[in-house]
């Protein structure tokens, strides 16, 4: 099989952007934090910090212990999104970007003469040059080239930072034997345990397993899809459907009270409701979560007639909050809301008794004004204490729309 996929994976993306924009950070260990607080953790680390053992999820305390001279900076999601769009355009100037997988990963399809090894490598080097021109010398990427997207992603992880790895059909499966099972996309801790229970302890075992054996291990047809991917076949992605709209926030020290936590939840839910409407969707369930400083958590969920109305959703939140334990717990440390049981407005599943129907015009006016004049121009009063809290966040598989989700 020819080389048909090229995968671009930006290295330590958030930290690299910070180093590019702040010359004093270049060559220094950098940790990017959701908020500047000693009780949070790193959401990204530069390679200089990674050499000391600092990684995503490392607490500030441990980061300082592992790397006493680490520079800790607050995340700037809007900046990362703006840079992302510039970098996509840079790659697009060299080869068409077939899919953007996340804010720091994208896949390209090789066709015609580009499938030749020499030509594919030339394109990869051209991409690296275009990225340096558009984003700066601190923004680097690792590129993988292979017969399919899955293997190209694997190849992009083999050499970091600034790597370029080619896996040809003739290299399979031996080129994969040095990897751990968890190095393969789609195999996490739970899946690794399942594979082990089926006698698959290594990538060598995985590659040697038959199609039916992998189907049994996965418990679904996904096992057969993995079998095909490992052999270089391009397997079409299954169509995805948005399952939830969610927002979360690590509370800064000044907002670690029940009253302030509720205000942040109000702000998060108002943002989520606006996003939901921008997708033309309605939701039938709300999940609320509060994490406490001592590691405990409080969670509640409610189902209701599907709606996209902010006031109706806030009423559900307030009803759930009546069960909150209050000051008897450790101080709240983080909060999250998730709207689930998502459906399209056009499916007509809204109840005739949905009180939110009477607020459709109000929601439309609020969304319109906030899009034109700023996201916090109009808001419901429960979010007042948190107007400067809960800034935009970037999830792994969701790139925020700066128009509907950006901060002012």
Would you give an account of this structure?
With 408 residues, the protein is of the alpha+beta class. It folds into three domains: 1-168, Reverse transcriptase/Diguanylate cyclase domain (Alpha-Beta Plaits, 2-Layer Sandwich), CATH 3.30.70.270; 172-239, DNA polymerase, domain 1; 244-401, DNA polymerase, Y-family, little finger domain (Dna Ligase, domain 1, 2-Layer Sandwich). 36% of the residues lie in helices and 19% in strands. It is built from 14 helices and twelve strands. The chain has helices at residues 13-21, 47-50, 60-66, 77-92, 117-135, 149-158, 189-197, 203-208, 211-218, 222-230, 258-278, 310-321, 360-373, 402-405, and strands at residues 5-10, 30-33, 44-45, 71-74, 97-102, 105-109, 141-146, 164-166, 244-250, 281-292, 297-307, 332-344. A five-stranded mixed sheet has the order 5-6-1-7-8. The protein has a four-stranded antiparallel sheet with strand order 9-12-10-11, covered by helices on one side. A three-stranded mixed sheet has the order 3-2-4. Helix 6 (149-158) links the parallel strand 7 (141-146) and strand 8 (164-166). Helix 4 (77-92) packs across helix 5 (117-135), helix 9 packs across helix 10 and helix 11 (258-278) runs antiparallel to helix 12. The longest helix is centred in the middle third of the chain and has 21 residues, at 258-278. The chain is globular and about 60 Å long. The mean pLDDT is 88.
Q: What is the helix tally? A: 14
**pLDDT < 50 stretches:** none
Number of strands: 12
Morphology = globular
As a percent range, the share of strand residues is: 15-25%
Give the N-terminus to C-terminus distance in angstroms: 50 Å
Radius of gyration: 23 Å
Average pLDDT, to the nearest integer? Answer: 88
Q: Walk across the major sheet and give the strand order.
A: 5-6-1-7-8
Number of separate domains: 3
Architecture (CATH level 2) name of the largest domain: 2-Layer Sandwich
Helix percentage: 25-40%
Name of the top-level CATH class of the largest domain = Alpha Beta
CATH names the topology of the largest domain as Alpha-Beta Plaits
Element order, helices and strands? EHEEHHEHEEHEHEHHHHEHEEHEHH
The profile of the biggest β sheet is: 5 strands, mixed
Based on helices, strands and strand pairing, what is the structural class? alpha+beta
CATH superfamily of the largest domain: Reverse transcriptase/Diguanylate cyclase domain
């Amino acid at each position: 099989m020819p080389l048909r996929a090229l995968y671009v994976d930006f290295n330590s993306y958030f930290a690299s952007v910070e180093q590019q924009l702040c010359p004093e950070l270049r060559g220094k260990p950098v940790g990017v934090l959701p908020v500047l607080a000693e009780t949070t953790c790193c959401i990204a680390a530069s390679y200089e910090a990674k050499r000391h053992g600092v990684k995503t999820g490392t607490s500030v305390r441990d980061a300082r212990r592992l790397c006493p001279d680490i520079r800790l900076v607050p995340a700037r999601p809007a900046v990362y999104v703006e840079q992302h769009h510039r970098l996509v355009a840079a790659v697009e100037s060299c080869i068409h970007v077939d899919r953007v997988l996340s804010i720091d990963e994208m896949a390209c399809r090789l066709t015609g003469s580009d499938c030749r090894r020499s030509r594919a490598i030339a394109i990869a080097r051209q991409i690296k040059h275009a990225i340096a021109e558009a984003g700066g010398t601190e923004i680097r990427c690792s590129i993988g080239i292979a017969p399919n997207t899955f293997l190209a992603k694997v190849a992009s992880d083999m050499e970091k930072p600034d790597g370029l790895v080619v896996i040809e059909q003739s290299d399979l499966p031996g080129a994969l034997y040095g990897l751990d099972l968890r190095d393969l996309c789609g195999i996490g801790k739970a899946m690794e345990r399942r594979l082990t229970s089926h006698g698959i302890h290594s990538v060598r075992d995985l590659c040697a397993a038959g199609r039916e054996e992998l189907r049994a291990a996965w418990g679904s047809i996904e096992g057969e899809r993995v079998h095909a991917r490992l052999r270089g076949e391009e397997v079409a992605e299954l169509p995805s459907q948005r399952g939830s709209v969610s927002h979360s926030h690590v509370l800064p020290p000044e907002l670690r009270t029940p009253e302030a936590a509720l205000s942040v939840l109000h702000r998060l839910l108002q943002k989520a409701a606006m996003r939901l409407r921008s997708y033309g969707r309605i939701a039938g369930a709300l999940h609320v979560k509060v994490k406490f400083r001592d590691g405990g958590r409080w969670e509640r969920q409610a189902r209701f007639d599907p709606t996209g109305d902010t006031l109706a959703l806030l009423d559900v939140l307030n009803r759930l909050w009546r069960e909150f334990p209050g000051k008897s717990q450790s101080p709240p440390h983080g909060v999250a809301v998730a709207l689930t049981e998502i459906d399209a407005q056009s499916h007509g599943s809204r109840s005739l008794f949905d009180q939110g129907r009477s607020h459709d015009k109000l929601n439309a006016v609020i969304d319109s004004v906030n899009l034109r004049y700023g996201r916090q121009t109009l808001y419901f009063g429960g979010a007042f204490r948190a107007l400067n809290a809960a800034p935009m966040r970037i999830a792994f598989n969701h790139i925020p729309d700066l128009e509907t989700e950006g901060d002012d």
